[in-house]
Amino acid sequence: MIDKYPKIVDGKSVYDLDSQKYLKMWQGPQHPGVTGNMSLELIISGDQVVACNTHVGYLHRGFEKLMERRRYINCFPIVCRICVPEPDTNEYLFAAATEELLGITVPEKAQWLRTLDLELSRLASFLMWIGGQSGSFGSGTVAQWAIANRDFVLDLFEELSGARIYHMYMIPGGVRGNLPEGWIEHTEKVLNNTEKLLDEIYIVLFNNAVFKSRAVGMGVITPEMIDQYGIVGPNARASGAARDIRKDNPYLVYDHLDFKIETETAGDTYARTLVRWKEMHQSISLIRQILKLMPKLGPIYTKLPNVLHMKVPAGETYVKAESTRGEYGYYIVADGTEFPRKITVRGPSYSHGMALLEDLVVGGNIADTHGLMLSLHTYPPEIER
Fold this sequence. Notes:
By secondary structure, the protein is α+β, with helices and mostly antiparallel strands.
């Protein structure tokens, strides 16, 4: 379909609509270039993208309003669904915000178990992501390797919590259970196999001439763009910004663990992929440190009042953590009743997957659009929350 499409920037058209017609094409809403349902309205000239509008609204979730109509404990089946590949960050943040409002302290052993849970979740999320990233550049082998290995990580979650996807392991006051017998040995086996896989991925993906020729120089994020667009996480670190909430504002037991902030300077798709590959190794190291340093004994839960009739004192708080996509936060307002007065979720996908993507994709080839989308690591449910 041929269509005139006015896109106005600073009061001026970004291209001359009167002298040329452009082709409008849609990518999505269902596309392997992004996890979830999001659509791109692309305006192209030949095979070059000259304008882009993102379209969301296909999920119709409304999580924040759903939670404001439920008791605090009834929100837990909801929060983990805001980010399906990495639900545990939502569990932790909602629990931590609720605990702060209640004024309760989580036992030390539970804090170690929560950190362990978060790093396992980070590893599973990154494995899913690198499978999609490689697949978007035609490397189906790496995609199958990564997704298959992620299933072994999900086995660990199933043993730990009874669930593979939505774990609901972290609840207000602590965690739901201790490590089962034989779990540590099973975990070490999975970590060893994952390390070997990551080495093979480096050989097959990062040394691949096709991937390098397309990813190097694609979708460059300059240091000046980081604060302008609100860029966080690996997207910022790949452009030289050494920012990580686990280091800058330590929470749980991250201040007891030894790790460095992984950065690159090129700011392109290749650099973002490399930073996340390094952070998978980082998570494996952190998991091993936790299993070595974590106290063997101690309570894992602080007893709460009857959670079905628990009234949270009036107040407000904002709690943040470092997800695989960067800063993730929960703002909760309590009014002294059994129900939250206001909940707002800050997910990185909103700024990365809409404002940033719309600008980065312009000037690129339509065949590279999905690879660029993946490199920004967007989860649409965070947008339609």
